[in-house]
């Protein structure tokens, strides 16, 4: 289903007052020391100190798990952040990445949104938010990473500490400085569940597939376009593609049409039946597509390397997504290289140890990445 910006309501957010004591840290955010650990812990700061833009002016550019994501405070450098409830598996992988530990996960750093801080469950640490750039936090993060790794080694199935979203993570909002952020969430692979998902839920997932055989699925998209941009001037129109519409894309050509429309700043995604030569900004489309395709090829090369192959052996990348981003305002204002599009690997909620999950052949993560490259040709 399609909505224009005037028709859909962005997910609301609430910044809860958890009575923090605030100190600036070297990472440019804040260090919050809780004075009441019984209060809700999903927000990162006092509402009077962290004022996000009204949702009607700048909605959260989030396609999935909207109920788990809120705005965080800006860093001292003025970078916007997002706070997400994450599982122990996702927290573990991100901690390994930022710690640059001897191990394969550290190679993913350039492909994931930068982690700013992490908030463990109460039973793990009472120190509050741990900032990855703060020297005093590093030993604590290393210890938490070690404890989670040991817990995963002892797991033999569903594990509350790892499989439930008991952690909170603060990431740099990769579109936070965009004027007209365009975002597309592409789910990768064949499998959307773990071996321990209930049969009822598996059945619901399979029913949604409607017999689809594609290795990718569009989970949602936000798109800004300016129909009169080619002639100069005009106002931007925003549109939103929901998850249900993604399930209705069955063929490779339908996906290619969606991609070409998404990367255009002059044509609506809802009007996807157009040829490459019909796009007034076809050169910009080609530049954006090429930039994203190159990034995915680099990601594939990483997983072919010794460290990437080791990570695939250790970890099942189940139900991860590729996040495509660019700023549509660049197409009109010409303030920057229009090929400045990027792709991030996100959503590691189900990325558990391989021994607890399906084989890579069953998951189809690498196949999904390869399929995406082909769709962008």
Strand content: 15-25%
Oligomeric state of shown chains: single chain
Order of helices and strands: EEEEEHEEHHEEHEEHHHHEHEHH
End-to-end separation in angstroms reads 27 Å
Counting helices, strands and paired strands, the structural category is alpha+beta
Mean pLDDT: 77
In which order are the strands of the major sheet placed?
1-11-10-9-12-13
CATH-defined fold name of the largest domain: D-amino Acid Aminotransferase, Chain A, domain 1
Largest sheet: 6 strands, antiparallel
Brief rundown of the structure:
The chain is α+β, with helices and mostly antiparallel strands. 30% of the residues lie in helices and 18% in strands.
Q: Which features does this protein show?
A:
377 residues, alpha+beta, D-amino Acid Aminotransferase, Chain A, domain 1, 2 domains, six-stranded antiparallel beta sheet, five-stranded antiparallel beta sheet, 11 helices, Kinase
Description:
With 377 residues, the chain is of the alpha+beta class. It folds into two domains: 2-172, no CATH class; 181-375, D-amino Acid Aminotransferase, Chain A, domain 1. Helices cover 30% and strands 18% of the residues. It has eleven helices and 13 strands. The chain has a six-stranded antiparallel beta sheet. A five-stranded antiparallel beta sheet has the order 4-5-8-6-7. It has a two-stranded antiparallel ribbon with strand order 2-3. It is globular. The two termini are 27 Å apart. This is Kinase. Its EC number is 2.7.-.-. It is an enzyme of class 2 (transferase). Pfam families: IPK (PF03770).
